[in-house]
Design brief:
31% of the residues lie in helices and 19% in strands. Strands 5-4-18-17-16-6-7 form a 7-stranded mixed beta sheet, sandwiched between helices. It folds into 4 domains: 16-74, N-terminal domain of TfIIb (Single Sheet); 92-153 and 369-463 and 486-530, Rossmann fold (3-Layer(aba) Sandwich), CATH 3.40.50; 155-349, Dimethylsulfoxide Reductase, domain 2; 597-709, Barwin-like endoglucanases (Beta Barrel), CATH 2.40.40. The chain is built from 24 helices and 28 strands. Helix 9 runs antiparallel to helix 12 (279-286) and helix 9 (238-251) packs parallel to helix 15 (320-333). By secondary structure, it is an alpha/beta fold. The longest helix is centred in the N-terminal third of the chain and has 19 residues, at 95-113. This is Nitrite reductase.
Length: 711
């Protein structure tokens, strides 16, 4: 058998006439794995493949998405020139014509409806340079307060919780390298085995070293399988479950009294709060046995080192921000912060979910994680941009709330980059109706996505193989994505598109960049002295050192491996604890006789976000070519749902039809549907418009639904 394989590979190699290697990194999850794209010329034509490349984060590993990422970049359906909608059909036009249409329509809209009638909808999948430029473009070129991005639907709960608790938000407070040494790990609402597969070896190594792993999830997943204890919580009850854990830690004297007294505030109020309920009450509320809650809390409390990781399962709820704060309460109470093997990790969903939220795409934010309402911050950024601080608009609203502004007629034009909001937003039918009301919608994308179908004008953008720039991964490590593959036909980079639109709008002097590196150097200056300080990071250093963890304030700074060793980022240096109610401020949907099941959503390994890219990959699409509903067999029988049959799922917001998939690993009161599909399979058509009052995160993880077989 071995001889046959060797003969096969020798024959394959003989066919290779030439080979070219291109350094790049994966465009998908926040691990940002380094890799090499290989183009081979063989006897019969061209052959392409992708292999991993050594790096500090994923150490050469790739998952199935990374190995096949090039398939969408080379896909024949890529947009390669500007497209204008004429009589309902897209027609090819020149870039000059496209820019003139933008100038004419944007100018007319602002003349008729006001400066804030234009809006910008960004992305957490674009580079730091492009995220920075998009924020500057909205405020300087368009002079509008309305800009937000799809990262609002991903990281806003964790970001706001960390900012309120610690005074700053970075994905991990420690580097990934510490995970194998941790003695107890809580994975709350995160299915890393499918969403960030190349991070899994860190946790597997920790388990080999004796770590006790606790998973919190209403489903059994590939991630919960590595856990020593699985807390199968009712959807939406994570904050209450954290209260139960905290109660045991406090009642059983696992509190680090010295840490709490010297480095935190609010503990007394939290202690009093958790004394107001019993563990049995928490068990009844969450569906988790009291003995399991006690065991989890005891294991975490008594271990010398411990880390907690949260992701969308906890965060994508109408109390997501305060729920995360409660898990941070546990870390503070046990003193597990600021030292080796002790810390917090928010498992970022999108490729640049960390960097894209640091430099100006958020409605209330300026570069360097500065506040747009802070006069000192406004003055500093205005000096970098060469304008007066009074020219910078004030804060706008969140991504979904912009859709409401469109529906109400306050916003009448939009520039949208690398996002697909009619699939990714809650109450998706409403979002589609709203976008159809716009007087002029410009979409910059690689493909005609479901949202791009509604556009008046589509602009062709470059892929990860072609677009050089920096990204900031799950650790907060800034990396340089090399990109030397040629752009096809008339495709332009996102940063070039932004600059060209600014030029025709008469703001070219503020956007006179000729390379991504030039943009990054201005970003460095804009971030200097801010919470997310990139000033000491350069392209040259990134090429030499393979990535740097921010803050990195000077050119000789090595980057910050571990946060909060001496103090937290609040002015008083203290971490802030808070009492968290068991019931949310914004009520979640409750089960009723009409809608008797919880619906929760999530990802599958072979797809990314709304699937616009991964559904263009034949290898990935073949693994999951349609959506499905995971349901417990007992529940399926109750509602006469056969395995692998079509089922209608309905909520107060709408209905979809997907195929059933029996699984005895999910709670009987819960069904699960992934969110990578559109149109009649778009699960976000079922999700309510209710938002977290702190961070404006929609409640994707908890909806009340009914099901019925399709006959």
């Amino acid at each position: 058998m071995t001889e046959m394989l060797l003969k096969y590979f020798r024959n394959q190699q003989k066919q290779v006439q030439s080979e070219k290697l291109y350094d790049t990194q994966c465009p998908y999850c926040s691990m940002q794995c380094k890799m090499q794209f290989i183009e081979q010329t063989i006897v019969t034509g061209k052959k392409y493949m992708t292999i991993g490349k050594d790096n500090p984060t994923s150490q050469g590993r790739l998952c199935i998405k990374g190995m096949n990422a090039h398939q969408h970049a080379l896909h024949h359906e890529r947009i390669k020139y500007p497209l204008l909608k004429v009589n309902g059909e897209f027609t090819r036009i020149s870039w000059e014509e496209a820019l003139n249409h933008i100038k004419e329509n944007f100018t007319k809209i602002q003349s008729e409806d006001g400066m804030n009638a234009l809006s910008v909808y960004g992305s957490a999948s674009i580079t730091n340079e492009e995220a920075y430029l998009l924020g500057k473009f909205a405020r300087v070129a368009l002079k509008t307060k309305y800009i937000d991005y799809n990262g609002r639907l991903c990281m806003s709960a964790a970001a706001s919780a960390a900012s309120q608790t610690f005074g700053m938000d970075r994905g991990l407070t420690n580097s990934l390298a510490e995970i194998p040494s941790v003695q107890c790990i809580i994975l709350a609402g995160t299915n890393i085995a499918e969403c960030q597969p190349t991070i899994m070896p860190y946790f597997e190594k920790a388990k080999e070293n004796g770590a006790f792993i606790i998973a919190i999830d209403p489903r059994e997943t590939a991630t919960t399988k590595i856990a020593d204890l699985h807390l199968k919580v009712k959807p939406g009850k994570d904050a209450a479950l954290a209260n139960g854990l905290l109660k045991v830690i406090i009642d059983e004297n696992y509190v680090d009294e010295t840490f709490v007294q010297e480095r935190a505030k609010g503990f007394t109020e939290v202690k009093e709060h958790v004394s107001s309920f019993t563990l049995e009450e928490i068990s009844e509320l969450t569906g988790v046995p009291a003995a399991d809650i006690r065991k989890a809390a005891t294991m975490f409390g008594k271990k010398e080192t411990g880390m907690i990781f949260t992701a969308r399962g906890v965060e994508q709820q109408t109390d997501g921000s305060i729920a995360v704060r409660n898990f941070l309460n546990i870390l503070i109470a046990t003193g597990k912060l600021g030292k080796w093997g002790c810390g917090y990790g928010a498992i970022t969903g999108q490729s640049n979910g960390q960097g894209a939220r640091e430099h100006g795409q958020k409605a209330d934010q300026l570069p360097g994680y500065r506040s747009i309402e802070n006069e000192e911050h406004r003055a500093y950024i205005a000096s970098v941009w060469g304008i007066h601080q009074d020219e910078i608009p004030r804060k706008g609203v969140s991504a979904y709330e912009m859709m409401e502004k469109i529906h109400d007629g306050e916003i009448t034009g939009m520039f949208l980059m690398c996002s697909n909001p009619i699939v990714s937003n809650p109450n998706a039918n409403f979002v589609k109706k709203a976008l159809n009301k716009l007087k002029f919608l410009v979409v910059a994308d690689m493909f005609i996505s479901e949202t791009a179908r509604l556009a008046d004008l589509i602009l062709p953008t470059s892929s990860y193989l072609e677009d050089e720039g920096t990204m900031t991964n799950v650790e907060g490590r800034v990396t340089l994505r090399e990109a030397s593959w040629p752009t096809p036909e008339e495709v332009k980079h996102d940063w070039q598109i932004i600059c060209e639109i600014a030029r025709v709008l008469g703001k070219g002097e503020y956007f006179s960049f000729s390379s991504a590196e030039e943009v990054f150097n201005e970003l460095r200056a804009a971030s200097r002295g801010g919470i997310a300080d990139y000033y000491g990071i350069t392209y040259e250093r990134l090429r030499k050192e393979g990535g740097l963890l921010w803050p990195c304030p000077t050119l000789d700074h090595k980057g910050t491996e571990r946060l909060f060793e001496q103090s937290f980022a609040h002015p008083d240096g203290l971490a802030s604890m808070v009492s968290v109610p068991n019931s949310p401020q914004v009520p979640k949907e409750q089960l009723t006789e009409e809608f008797p099941l919880y619906l929760t959503t999530g990802r599958v390994m072979s797809h990314y976000l709304t699937g616009v890219q991964t559904r263009k990959s034949s290898s990935l699409s073949a693994r999951n070519f349609e959506s499905y509903m995971e349901i417990h067999p007992n529940t399926a029988r109750k509602y006469d749902i056969q395995d692998q049959s079509l089922v209608k799922i309905e909520s107060k917001q709408g209905s979809i039809i997907v195929r059933s998939k029996w699984s005895d690993t999910i709670r009987p009161d819960t069904v699960f549907v992934p969110f990578h599909w559109a149109d009649s399979q778009n699960v976000n058509c079922l999700v309510s418009e209710k938002l977290d009052p702190t961070c404006r995160m929609p409640g994707f993880k908890v909806s009340a639904v009914k099901i019925a077989p399709v006959v």
